[in-house]
Amino acid sequence: MTTPRPVVAVLGTGIIGAPVARNLARGGFTVRAWNRTRIKADALAADGVHVADTPADAVDGADVVLTVLNDGPRVLEAVRAAAPKLAAGTVWVQVSTVGEDIDAIAAHAAEAGLVLVDAPVLGTRRPAELGELTVLAAGPESVRETVQPLFDTIGSRTVWVGEDGAEGRSSRLKLVLNTWVVALTNGVGEALSLAKGLDVDPKLFLDAITGGPLDSGYLQGKSGAILTGDFTPSFSVDNAEKDARLAAEAARRTGLRLDGIEAARDRFARASAQGHGGEDMAAVYFASFEGEGTAGDSDGSGRSADAGPRA
């Protein structure tokens, strides 16, 4: 006989949370979802997800609760709101990027009698939609049989980092990984903005780098977004700014000086102030130019007739 699949509550149905909930429902799990802005969750009903009005309604009777929210304070706010219907012993899978707020999350889990699995994910919209996230998990052996089928449904790979989610090893590993992602994204943006400034055909940059040791799928993807002006978000500028801030704060607390991540945070913040906060993080490209959008904007909209350099 097969073991019944756990009832799963998903708190947060944004860029990552929505496909996570959808894939779990399609994978045979009973899924209840809540989102602060309900309209973002309502679309999941067509996939068999029960959309709840409150966090407490979502977690009522759930075996596993996944939090997929923007940051640590919002995660804690949602779980505290769920407290009236959140039974002691429930497995809490913390999927969000929360940085060192994991310590406050772990303290709340202990106080409420919840079993914490710290499991931030590596990946953006498309990997989430395809069920190809990388799950960075830390939690006790006693619940791995329960949560591994979830991870196998939403991801292509699970990296078990430790046996105690409260230690925050997974969340701190995520900060290290995000530091690299931020560096790559800013590198692409600055290289292409310099090409524009020097009147260098960006196609020559890509021709020179393609197929060599400095090439990568990430470089090609973010370059493509900039060159075509398609900034449909797979991960937004504002979220990237938040992640850069979390990494910078963690570094400062350990006495490290990470000049690149500090500068990256400023660049994301500047691109957001120019009106690109909801666009894909590749729009950090615009931070290289004075005012809004690219150099040469004529209408003050943040998007010129050539929204990016042309290949």
Total count of helical runs of at least 4 residues: 12
Alpha-beta classification: alpha/beta
In total, the number of strands is: 9
Topology pattern, helix = H, strand = E:
EHEHEHEHEHEEHEHEHHHHH
Gyration radius, rounded: 21 Å
End-to-end C-alpha gap: 58 Å
Strand proportion, as a percent range, falls in: 5-15%
Mean pLDDT: 92
Low-confidence stretches: 294-311
Which shape, going by the Cα principal axes? globular
| Helical residues, percent | 40-55%
Strand order of the largest sheet: 3-2-1-4-5-6
What does this protein look like?
By secondary structure, the chain is of the alpha/beta class. Helix content is 46%, strand content 13%. The protein is built from twelve helices and nine strands. It has helices at 17-26, 39-42, 55-59, 72-82, 102-112, 125-130, 144-154, 169-197, 202-209, 217-228, 237-253, 259-276, and strands at residues 7-11, 30-34, 50-51, 64-67, 91-94, 115-118, 121-122, 133-138, 155-162. The chain has a six-stranded parallel sheet with strand order 3-2-1-4-5-6, with helices on both faces. The chain has a three-stranded mixed sheet with strand order 7-8-9. Helix 7 links the parallel strand 8 and strand 9. It is globular, with a radius of gyration of 21 Å.
